[in-house]
Amino acid sequence: MINLGIIGTNWITEQFVKATDETKSFSLTHVYSRTEAKAESFIADLDKKNIQISTDLEAFFKEDFDTVYIASPNALHFEQAKLAIENGKNVIVEKPITSTIEEFTILDKLAHEKNVYLFEAARHIQEPIFKKIEEVVADHRADLSGATFSYMKYSSRYDDFKAGKTPNVFTTKFSGGALYDLGVYTIYDAVVLFGQPEKVCYDAEFLSSGIDGSGSLTLSYPTFDVNIIIGKTKNSYMSSEIYFGRDTLLLDNGGDINHLDWADDNKNITDVPTNKSENPMDSEAVEFARIMTEKDQPSYDKLLKYARIVNRVLEQARTSAGLVFEADEEN
Amino acid sequence: MINLGIIGTNWITEQFVKATDETKSFSLTHVYSRTEAKAESFIADLDKKNIQISTDLEAFFKEDFDTVYIASPNALHFEQAKLAIENGKNVIVEKPITSTIEEFTILDKLAHEKNVYLFEAARHIQEPIFKKIEEVVADHRADLSGATFSYMKYSSRYDDFKAGKTPNVFTTKFSGGALYDLGVYTIYDAVVLFGQPEKVCYDAEFLSSGIDGSGSLTLSYPTFDVNIIIGKTKNSYMSSEIYFGRDTLLLDNGGDINHLDWADDNKNITDVPTNKSENPMDSEAVEFARIMTEKDQPSYDKLLKYARIVNRVLEQARTSAGLVFEADEEN
C-alpha cells in the first residue's frame, strides 16, 4: 500500500480516507491540520493509530510519505500542490485542481520535472456507472447528436451567504461559485465522452460577491452542442441526457450519477443495468494507486489530458461570463 | 356561436375544429384549401355538412363568416392574416403569429384600425394546468429564483430533411426551426409567468438549411435567469422546473404540460393536483370566443401584450444567434 498524507480534516477528506481503507489502496500515515486538536479528533473518528500530525505545512511535506491528498478550498490547491511536488510527493488534488490554466501548466510541468504523479480527483469518471455511459456512447457514436448535463444543488452555505456571512465557496478569493464546484463534474462528463469543445460560452447568474450562483454553459462540438445547467442556489431534479437521434440515454444527474435509463424510438424507457459502489471515491482511489504501482503511463497521460482540457474549459467559461477570481490578479 | 372559417386542412386545424365543436364555441362554416378534393375530404372526416369551400383566398375572405383560424406554415401567416383583417375578419393565428416583430406590428395596428380581434393561438397558457402553475408562482413569488423550460421532440420531418428533402419546418423560407416552433411554447411560459426579459441570448445548433435544429436560450430577468432547451432533432425527457429557493415546481414538459410535482426542502416530491382536458385546444377556443362575445377588452389586451413580447423575444433570440429568415429580407 502507498503511504498517504492528507491536507484538511473535512468530510470529503474523511470519505477519501475511508475509500482508501475499503479498497486497501493507500495507507494513511500523515495528517496536516492548522490545529493539532482537529487532527487528533479526525484521526480518532477514523479509529486510526500511529498517524503523524503536522501543523506546519513545510514540515509536513518533509515527512516520509509518498502521496498527498489535497481537499482544501480551491484557491489553496495551487500553492499546496506546488509545495508537495517540490518535496517529491505524488499529488491527488480535489477538482478543480487549480484556479487558472496558468497554475495548472506550472504544476503539470513541475510534476514532470520532479517525476511525481499529479492527479485531479475527478471521482465520478472512474465509477463503474460512468464506464457504462462511455460504453453506450461508443456503441452509438454514429448517432450521437448532443447532450444536456445538469447538476444543481442548493448549498446550505447559501443560507449563510444570504445571512451576510462569506463562506469560502461563495467568494472569488477562494475561487468559489457553481462553475468551479458542481460545474467541474459536468465538464468532465463532456470532455471524457466527447473530447475538447470548439467553443465555450457561459451565461452566469452572478451573486453580489462576484461569483456565479448558477449558470448555463454551452460547449460547441463540430456536429452538436452540449448544454450544461449548474447551480448552488436552487434544487434541480431534471435528468441529464445524451442524444442519439431518436434515442436518448437518461442519467438521473450530471454529477452524482446513480441510475441510467435508455429511451428508444417508441419512447419506451428501460433501465440500463450498472453497478454503483457504496463510497463513490472507491474507484478513483483504486485507479490512482494502480496507475502509480503499475507505472501505467498511458492511463496517467489520459487522465492528465482530461484534467488539462477541463481546466482550460473552466477558464474559457469564466472568461466568456466575465467571472474573475483573485487568483487571476495574483499571477 | 361564432361562425368560423379555416385555412388549411392539416391535423392541427382538425384538432381546433374538434375543440370548437366540443366546447360549442365556434361553428365551422367555411373552409379554404388549394384543392377542392382536400377540403371535401377534410369536411367528410369531420362529419360536417353545409360547409362552403373556397380554393381562392381572396374570394374566401369575401364570404360571410366572423373569424378565421390560420394554421398554415409560419411564413404564410402574415399575408393571410393581413388579408383577413382587411376583409374585416377576426383572426386566430397559430403561433408564432408572424416571422418578424415588424410584421406583428403591422397586423396589430391594422386589427386595431379595422376593429377586429387578433389572437395568437398560444393554447397551453389557457389550459387549467397552466393556470395552476400561475397560481403556484403567485403564491411563492417572494422566493422565485429562476426556471428551466425544455421542449425537445424529434420531428418525423427531420428524417425527410436528412434524406435530402426540404420540409417547410426545416427551411428559412417558411420561418422554420426549433425556436419558431417548440420554442414559442417555452417563451410563452417565461413571458406569462415572469414578464418581459431584460436580455435574450440564443445559442443555436444550425442545420445545413440555415435553420436551428435545436438550441439553448437564456432569458435574463433582474434577479434570475430562465434557461430554455429546445429542439426538433432529439428526444428529451427531462422535467421543466421553476425554482423557489430550496423548493422546486416540476413540470413534466415545457410545452405539452401534463403533470405537476412539488419538491420541498427535504426533497420530498408530491403531486400537485390539476386538470387536463382531453383536447388541449378546448381552453383557448372557449377563451377566444368568450373575449369576443363579452367584448372583454382587458383580457384581450393582456393576450395581445403577451403575443407582442413573445414575438419580440423570438426576434431578439434569432438575432443573437444569427438566424435569418427569408421574411427578414422581404421587408
From TrEMBL, chains A, B:
Output the Pfam families linked to this UniProt entry.
Answer: GFO_IDH_MocA, GFO_IDH_MocA_C3
Q: Which GO molecular function annotation, any one, does this entry have?
A: nucleotide binding
Domain of life, per lineage: Bacteria
User: Where in this chain does the record put each Gfo/Idh/MocA-like oxidoreductase N-terminal domain?
Assistant: 2-119
- Check the record and name the InterPro entries matching this protein: Gfo/Idh/MocA-like_OxRdtase_N (IPR000683), GFO_IDH_MocA-like_dom (IPR055170), NAD(P)-bd_dom_sf (IPR036291)
User: Which residue intervals define the domain GFO/IDH/MocA-like oxidoreductase in the entry?
Assistant: 156-222
PANTHER family of this UniProt entry?
A: PTHR43054, SCYLLO-INOSITOL 2-DEHYDROGENASE (NADP(+)) IOLU
The entry's protein name is Oxidoreductase
- What is the organism field in this record? Companilactobacillus kimchiensis
